Amino acid sequence: MDPKTLFCLPEGDALFNPLNTMFIQMACILVFSQFFYLFLKPCGQAGPVAQILAGIVLSLLTIIQKVHDFFLQKESASYYIFFSFLLRTCFMFLIGLELDLDFIKRNLKNSILITFGTLLSCGIIWIPFLWFLVHFLHIKQDFLTFYLAFLVTLSNTASPVVIRSIIDWKLHTSEIGRLAISCGLFIEITNIFVYTFVISYISGTMSGDIFGYIFATGVIILINRFLAAWLPKRNPKEKYLSKAETLAFFILILIIASTIESSNINSTVFVFFIGLLFPREGKTYRTLINRLSYPIHEFVLPVYFGYIGFRFSVSSLTRRHYLVLGMTVALSIIGKLLGVLCACSFLKIPKKYWLFLSTVLSVKGHMGLVLLDSNLAYKKWFTPVIHDMFVASLVITTLLSGVLSSLLLWTQEKGFSHQKTSLEFHDTKDELRVLTCVYGVRQARGLISLVSALHGASSSLFTPYLMHLIPLPKKRKTELLYHELDEDGVNAIGGDDEFGTNEGLEINDSIDSFTRDRKIMIRQVKLVAQMENMHEEICDGTEDLRVSIVFLPFHKHQRIDGKTTNDGEVFRDMNRKVLKQAPCSVGIFVDRNITGFHQLHGFDSVQHVAALFFGGPDDREALSLCHWLTSNSQIHLTIIQFIADDSKVEKVVGDAVTKENNDVLLEIVGEDHTKDEIDRIFLEEFYNRFVTTGQVGFIEKRVSNGTQTLTILREIGEMYSLFVVGKNRGDSPMTSGMNDWEECPELGTVGDFLASSNMDVNASVLVVQRHRHSFDSFVDE
């Protein structure tokens, strides 16, 4: 790329008009795309489809001569190229920042094989078709670059389109959604590498530049790591970096990207790796995500996708070209379909995902257009007809793929929905996703301790989220909008008197300390809503994040003197509504941070945890949660089973053979066992797996009524720092009479007793309620 073109140096006095028309064009794309999205969203279409259609409509309007002269001025191409470069640099850096590295590492084999399969199948299919195109288009020279450009452009996957579509379909937290994003990036990066190295081989002068820029990119990555650690220390009391400090990172990125582009080398991969290797914890990372996500997803990407549609033109094509255009689109989709199906069959990916994965990976644009217009000195075959045919095939393929993908999602909605809504049938080898909700740093520290306990072995798959709940009162002390107050938004909830001025900062500091010690990244989410609607937003968030359990703070907290104080009945009401409507299991954490459960990270002390088992689905869910506690070396877990005195069972556990969850489920469903037998089978499996190996302690307590149960709970109240118990267990003689003085029914009979400040129990309490429809969904699956 010519430096004069790259930096939009003015030519004569024609500086203002091209800039003016370009910004008007952006505004038109945004307006048209929102109009189309209003009608297409109810049909399940993703945003990129609407934005590309907006660009096509704007392109069709250029048929009018005055519109054509206004938008397509003689000097406007330089500005389009430069701003396209700026937009591409911004969102590729953000894509690298937001990418789930842990998922890519776990699924590296799958991503590589699917990438290889699609490129191989497309390459084989294009060979005979390209022989036909060479004769049809009368190509006389540069056959290698023609084949390369055609293969790379039409076998490529536009990763930004895939990412934006997956987010719009709310699949970005699902396994198949993240796999599609990974494969899209692998395919695009592979095509860029192949194209760049072949062109450098043909030119004979670019190889040295490429290795030089790789070294320079490595230096930028090291500088970013130093700045990311050093800049937060300059203003430790600020929640985010200043805007000037944020700008420093972009200046470095733009310098290296513009230098690379000026040498006719595409900078996309270099910028992507700068974002990918950026430190993932701390204030700097949080600042960049906070300040980049909204403008890029809501402005930059829509404009960029609209620009793809704006380039659509068939004015130079004749009727005989339309048939070839249709064949190109069909072969592009078929090639991707065959490659994905073969790879998925080999990898044993569930069949319900095969067609969706092949269609969503067929979207084009982005790098296909960039590579098509680059290195024209080695493309003597490049004509307006070939350009229009290439661009039209990219746009049509993208629109068809987007529509087909949304139709597949609509017809198989249940197959793509979140299935792991409870823990009882959740394999510990699978990823555990949990959401913790906090109002301030007081609740955050206790729930971070719980997250630390759940992440036992470093090899376990664990993804914790922390949602900062910011209640927005109906009547505020200021007329300013929420986003106009400050970046933390704390003042929007009624003033600093109630929540403190540094709640957000202290929460971030607690998370950063945990991340440094345990090497676990807690993903943060901010939720601002009125208390009347807070439970709905939490339930929507749990569904979008696809978590298996959500932890809520109890509406009371422990003071320094050991007594408890009520934080407000509004928080209690919210907990009740979440318990009733949550689309997953729920845990209410009664944090006694002074006398109870303490943070594990940074200390060598062992915490004694007791799981109380009376029977019932909630107790099974609570015991299932304890699966993740067993692998933590700082947790000593003991199962205390309460058995009714009138029980005829002589020995409840100890003689069973270890079963897999699926075998237990088949036995339960097939023989119609009673609830007591389901509890016995579940407990036997847990006993044989953990107790017989010495990982977990086991105690049996025989009681005949609630009074004896209370006596035992008082006796063991000082022995453990955390009690884990289910909420409901039906009418049981073991808890009879305990609800006569019940204060908090949402905790259940036993949980309410353990949480009461009037009892001699100083341990923290975790009360678990299983998702009510989880068993049925598991059977259906």
Provide keyphrases for this structure:
single chain; 781 residues; alpha/beta; 10-stranded mixed β-sheet; two-stranded antiparallel sheet; 12 strands; 57% helix; elongated; potassium; transmembrane helix
SSE topology:
Layout: H1 3-6, H2 16-40, H3 47-61, H4 65-71, H5 76-98, H6 101-106, H7 108-136, H8 143-155, H9 159-168, H10 175-203, H11 207-234, H12 243-261, H13 268-276, H14 283-310, H15 319-347, H16 354-360, H17 367-373, H18 384-411, H19 413-416, E1 432-438, H20 441-454, E2 462-471, H21 482-485, H22 496-499, H23 503-518, E3 523-529, H24 531-545, E4 549-553, E5 556-558, E6 564-566, H25 569-581, E7 585-590, E8 607-613, H26 617-625, E9 635-644, H27 661-671, H28 675-691, E10 697-703, H29 706-716, E11 722-726, H30 748-755, E12 764-769, H31 774-780
Parallel strand pairs: 1-2, 1-4, 2-3, 4-7, 8-9, 8-11, 9-10, 11-12
Antiparallel strand pairs: 5-6, 7-12
Helix pairs in contact: 2-3, 2-14, 3-14, 3-18, 5-13, 5-14, 7-8, 7-10, 7-15, 8-10, 8-17, 9-10, 11-12, 11-13, 15-16, 15-18, 16-18, 20-23, 24-25
Description:
It is a single chain. 57% of the residues lie in helices and 10% in strands. The protein has a 10-stranded mixed beta sheet with strand order 3-2-1-4-7-12-11-8-9-10, sandwiched between helices. Strands 5-6 form a two-stranded antiparallel sheet. Helix 2 crosses helix 3 (47-61), helix 7 packs antiparallel against helix 15 and helix 15 (319-347) packs across helix 18 (384-411). The chain starts with a helix and ends with a helix. The model is unreliable at 5-10, 488-501, 654-673 and 775-781 (pLDDT under 50). Keywords: Ion transport, Membrane, Potassium, Potassium transport, Transmembrane, Transmembrane helix, Transport. This is Cation/H+ exchanger domain-containing protein. Residues 35-407 form the Cation/H+ exchanger transmembrane domain.
